[in-house]
Structures are given as structure tokens and as C-alpha cells.
Design brief:
- By secondary structure, this protein is an alpha+beta fold.
- It has a single domain, classed as Alpha-Beta Plaits.
- The protein is 37% helix and 37% strand.
- It has helices at 2-15, 34-44, 72-82; strands at 17-27, 49-55, 60-65, 86-97.
- The longest helix is centred in the N-terminal third of the chain and has 14 residues, at 2-15.
Amino acid sequence: MKKITLILVALVSFAIAKDDKVNLKIAGMQCAYSCADKVTKVVENIKGVKDCEVDFASNTATVVFDDKKLDSKEIVDVLKKKTSYKVEIQSEKKVESI
């Protein structure tokens, strides 16, 4: 019985994946629609990114990504390369997803 329980716990832990979530500060956006949309499109086209929400009012973006495929520094580098905005990491944390 203990072995079955351990196996079930192991399977459930693999089923519940951990992603990373990074909050970025983006300086230089001047318009609510096209600037925020550009950041969203650039970030969402990076392999491993699961979600990107840009808030023009606070000049921030929240990105959820698979930490096995990329890291937050790569996201910052791509944004700096493909846009003219200044980008820096505000905070990072793990989030649970099923």
C-alpha cells in the first residue's frame, strides 16, 4: 500500500508543473495600444512563453514561461533586441500550473 501511495504522489507531482513568472519594467512605451501590443507579440513569439500581460499605465509586463525552455534574462534580451524599450526585471517567482 505504501508503494502505491508513493507512486501516486510521484505521478501527481509530475502532473503539476512549476512555471516561472517574471515582472518586467518597460520604459519607453508611448502609446497604450501599439506599444503594448508590440511588447506582447514579441514576448509571446518566444518559445517557452505561456502568457504575457502588458500594463501600459504602469509600464510593466508580467510573463509566465517554462523555465526548462528559457530564463527571464533571455526574455529581456529579446525585448531589448526587437524593440527600442529599456527593459529590466522587477521580480521573479515560481507559479503552479496544471
